[in-house]
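Not sure how to ask, but would you mind making up any protein sequence you like and the tokens describing how it folds?
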Amino acid sequence: MKNSVLDAKHFHDEEAAYAYLEARVWPHGPTCPKCGTFDRIGKMGGKSTRIGTYKCYECRKPFTVKVGTVFESSHVPLRLWLQCVHLMASSKKGISSNQLARTLNVTLKTAWFMSHRVREAMVVLGMEPMGGAGLIVEADETFIVNKKGFPKPKGGAGHKMVVVSLVERGGSVRSTVIDSVSRPDVERIIRQNVHPESRLMTDTAAYYRRGQLGTESHEMVDHSAGEYVRGDVHTNTLEGYYSVFKRGMKGVYQHCGEKHLHRYVAEFDFRYSNRIRLGIDDKERADRTLKGIVGKRLTYQTPR
């Protein structure tokens, strides 16, 4: 019988946790986060020295692998951080802060803070345009999360936030959160994120139908007429993505403030773009999350 994934040593031993993280953040050896030096660095010893502490003999500063990452200044043991990353990366519909608190044996406040830092690590920066010659990109939108202080109308979804998503068939998904959907917003998002030689597929909503979306090919299905598939023209890939996203947001997280919605969206985008069908298992997905912790800080300061 195979051992549980969570039996791995780095989930239980602090020194092993630091070694595991160092191997992913510093694949070519320790690098000073202050001055960038990598050749004049030594590991500190001694009984009073913190685990995983190095010293740069160029700028004379001590540091650990957590400096300059979302883990910096955290008093939570690194082994618990690695458990949190694995649980969030491997849970298809997410894992609530209450469940994390019970599993990791930390307070709810700590679990909530940890989960948002991990979501920040899942944010992918500097992405190239999606699609290309002969490739299909689907575009669609969904309405979720009530705006604070916005009266609920008798009809429509004007009181909700909008998530506009683009998915490359057989590839990744990319979503953008906006306050309200309009033709200029949709056109800007598509032009910035979709390669002009792609085949773009949408429904017949007004902001797609009237827009100059910047792609050589733009094909639509008319949902109002009961048309959902015409040959290979459809937006069902995004509908499948939204089904997982909404089940997670409503069934697992249940409540999300509009100022945090972009991080939850990044979490679901990351898991979909690094899914099993693309050859990425839970361990590799967690490792990719750890590679995204560098250069990001997320702090919440309570005003006096």
About this structure: The chain has a mean pLDDT of 91.
